UniProtKB/TrEMBL annotation:
GO molecular function terms attached to this record: oxidoreductase activity
Entry EC number(s): 1.-.-.-
InterPro entries registered for this protein in UniProt: Flavoprotein-like_sf (IPR029039), FMN_Rdtase-like_dom (IPR005025), ISF_SsuE-like (IPR051796)
Superkingdom of the source species: Bacteria
Name under which the protein is recorded: NAD(P)H-dependent FMN-containing oxidoreductase YwqN
Domain NADPH-dependent FMN reductase-like: from-to ranges: 4-107
Lineage of origin: Bacteria, Bacillati, Bacillota, Clostridia, Lachnospirales
Pfam families for this protein: FMN_red
Keywords: Flavoprotein, FMN, Oxidoreductase
Amino acid sequence: MKQILVILGGGRRNGNTKQLADSFVSGAAQAGHQVETIALSEIEVKGCLGCNACRYGKPCVQPDDFNRIVPKLKEADLVVFASPLYFWTISSKLKAFIERFYCIAQRDETPPYGRYEKYPVKDAALLMTSADDFFWTFEQAVSYYQFAIVNYIGFTDKGMLLAGGCGDTNGKPNIRNSTSEVSL
């Protein structure tokens, strides 16, 4: 059984991304995993200030909800990032959330090339929705996920579900059912 944390970056209460994430959550729960979803639209998470207070043993100084989420991030085996495609990338809410990972990094005396610190060892998955469905629709979002989450932070990619051309997911079980493609 895995502890799964779903970070929902969409802005609409029951939008496409929420419906897609709910389908994933349902399948994961049926498989016996413990799942918690955090909707960034219902809490406040600001972007990183770059102040480096966290590098001196202090919690992040931003007065928002991120510090209460840190223990959940550390406990999770799998972190699922769910976002609609906004201006060809992840939502600004999700981007701000990912920036704040800086405060959970630890000093690494011998970092791998291109890194400066180490992060907790986690698995990750990406769920995205978009009205468009061109061959390049998710290119920038996937590139960011692969570079920031997989290559730099070092999470292990467990899969992506890129639901392009979805319109409204109501009545389109092929989109909702395909969440089983993400390996747990």
